[in-house]
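Design review, sub-item: ligand-bound model
Attendees: FS, YL, KQ
YL presented the inputs for the zinc ion complex:
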Amino acid sequence: MEFFIKDLNSADYEGLIYPLFYEDNGEDICDCVKSKVQKLKGSDKFKGECGEIFCIVEETEDKLQYTLLLGLGKKEELTSEGIRIAYSKALKKAKELKLSMIAVKMFNSEKICVKRRIKAIYEGMVLGDYKFDKYISDKKESSVKSIFIKAIKDEDVNKAQEALDEIDILTSSVIEARNLVNEPANILYPKELAKRAEKIGEEYGFEVDIYGKDKIEELGMHSFLEVAKGSSKSPKLIVMRYIGDVENKGDILGLVGKGLTYDSGGYSIKPTDGMVMMKSDMGGAAAVIGAMASISKMKLKTNVIAVVASCENMISEKAYKPGDIISSMAGKTIEVLNTDAEGRLTLIDAVHYIIEKEHVSKVIDLATLTGAVLVALGDTTTGVVTNNKDFYKELQNASELSGEKVWELPSFDEYKKLIKSDIADYKNIGGRNAGTITAGLFIGEFVQNKPWLHLDIAGTAWSEKDNGYLSKGGTGAGVRTLYYLAKERCE
Ligand code: BES
Ligand code: ZN
Ligand code: ZN
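KQ shared the predicted structure:
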């Protein structure tokens, strides 16, 4: 599917997506649809609610011409997220009608600048078009091939093209992340994840180093190795570097992604239903790989290093067990009370590594860490634990731009007490209550004094069904927010 900024004549396309606000009553509307809109507005068939669609079919000399009226709701209530969702619905309708060349008429908005309007339209349509169909023999190709954006003011054409170029890179990075998450665990295990990261690095322009078991042992990443040792698939430490601001090499944003290519729960085994989607337990890794892709391809003037400690959490005679006391790269000891709380054990070593060996100035970790975050915030909002208000503000700004919702959870000292052990420095679970907070704070014990954000994406990295521009399966959560956060750092 390709996008162009071009004012085509109606004879040159099959379908037109015509946006209408709730309050539009026909005055500023083109003659082509004016009388129809006026009649429709008086009926309850089309009100112009956000995402509402009404299809008009007309016969011209040689073909049928489709106009999809697309409601955008009340003008002052319009958001970029509303645009994404509305246009994802319009694209689905165009596919249903098997349209191939469609035009999209641009609309005016005082609230949302032309760049953001274009980006939201593109995201809605391209991400809404995504389907993981790699393993389906009889693939159904999308009918929509070209989309022409019409009615861009002359003075806005350059800005619009710039926005298209940027959002093209950003959405393809999100799709890379979705593909990684959707790949099953029999195909994508640590070695394969590392290979894919390498390939994406080559294509988008960041450097990738992959360390195997010997190097991980040499580094003393004991906690990571304990989780990995139950699997016949060996662990990989994936390090990705992008230095786009050579003069400020001391200022590096560190990203850490949870990279469990499968989480059976280990001896604290999961029930089957909970296990099926555990191929997605590397959603954090996918997010940081996707973010590296967009940051490097856009050549942002900033430095970012990302680390993924990738392994599988399995059962075998070699696996770690509830009751074990293990060590970590930082030298602190941990009493393992539940082998299903494995993500944090891999993350503490990854965080320690990125601070000690890659010398990053700030750390963001992303992880499908707790089922508790779904209970607390559902599948629309990422839970955040942080030690730094200013850094959280940066995340909030980036989240405004991406539309990916975040919410900070409290991190009072009382919660920290819950992860202290009687027989080791820490225990790996804090009890039934406040599971997302104690999991986050466990990682926080290893960030030294660096500004740190922990994003629990267990609810947002996976969607149970197609929903607006999110497709069933991996969502690519985090990629766009991390990109904007890195971009804001250079401005
Ligand atoms: N990978 C899971 C968390 C998860 C749950 C991700 C649901 C996506 C959807 C994690 O490793 C886990 O099993 N966490 C446990 C922690 C508990 C043992 C303290 C959980 O949430 O049940
Ligand atoms: Zn687990
Ligand atoms: Zn897990």
